[in-house]
Amino acid sequence: MSCYTSSYGRETSLTSSRPGRRRRGGHNELSSVSPDIFPFSQRLTEDPTRTPIELVKCKMQVQMLMATPRGSTKLPGPIAVLTSVIRKQGIMGLWLGHTGTLIRETGGTASWFCTKEFVASLLLARRLGNEASSSTSKAIHELRPWESALSGAMAGVAFNLSLFPADTVKSAMQTEDELRPRNPHSSATSVKPSFLKTFAAMYRAKGIRGLYAGCGITIARSIPSSAIIFLIYDELKKYFS
Q: Which residues, in sequence order, are CB contacts of 84 under 8 Å at separation 6+?
């Protein structure tokens, strides 16, 4: 997360200092597109490490639904799950569902930062329009804590709403062996599901609502966390600038 916010900070500093930028009430107005460029590229470079971690996490979360040997109560830990995947599917098996992770993280991050900047600019413009325009204080052109928190909360909503189906498909692919084990003697065991085929199968079975299953609780988690992230980021930026 620190990588994304630092990239975001570098980009906002660069874009706000460009000549010819629009100004609103003396405040440099950021484009709704530019803030996502650096975090977008950051996601591209970090995602290869994220997919194996999420794969192990998803498999561990559905372990209780699997048939276990009689009398066995101990569930395998993350290292055991990791080595099991490598033993059965090879090292590349750790990147099962990587397409979904890539789509979710790159597109979702773009929505996250763009929404934050867009909502923040609206809140700032509304306040500057209501307050005395004669004030030259730098503080009046900075986001207040509640404005940072509200714009961050809206960013959390946008992140999940934009491409949540990609995460649903990714999780389904990563837990298919546990939830729908195949016949070991079947020739189909060597055929791994593709992202598009899994997406199509889920859409045919449950429609768009099935692809957004669990989105509500995910948004409920993301609203406070994103609000806190941007609140802390903006306040620290003001403190150290």
A: 76
Q: Both tokens of residue 149?
A: 């928190």
Q: Is 19 exposed, middle or buried (0-12, 13-18, 19+ CB in 10 A)?
A: exposed
| Domain enclosing residue 232, as ranges | 2-240
Residue range 177-231, pLDDT digits in tens: 888 776 655 555 456 779 999 999 999 999 999 999 999 999 999 999 999 999 9
Domain count, the chain: 1
Instruction: Indicate which CATH number applies to the domain containing 69.
Output: 1.50.40.10
Query: How far, in Å, are 1, 34, 54, 147, 203 from residue 7 at the CA level?
Result: 10, 12, 23, 21, 36
Instruction: Tell me how long the chain is.
Output: 241
CA distance 81 to 62: 12
Q: Is 216 helix (H, G, I), strand (E, B) or coil?
A: helix
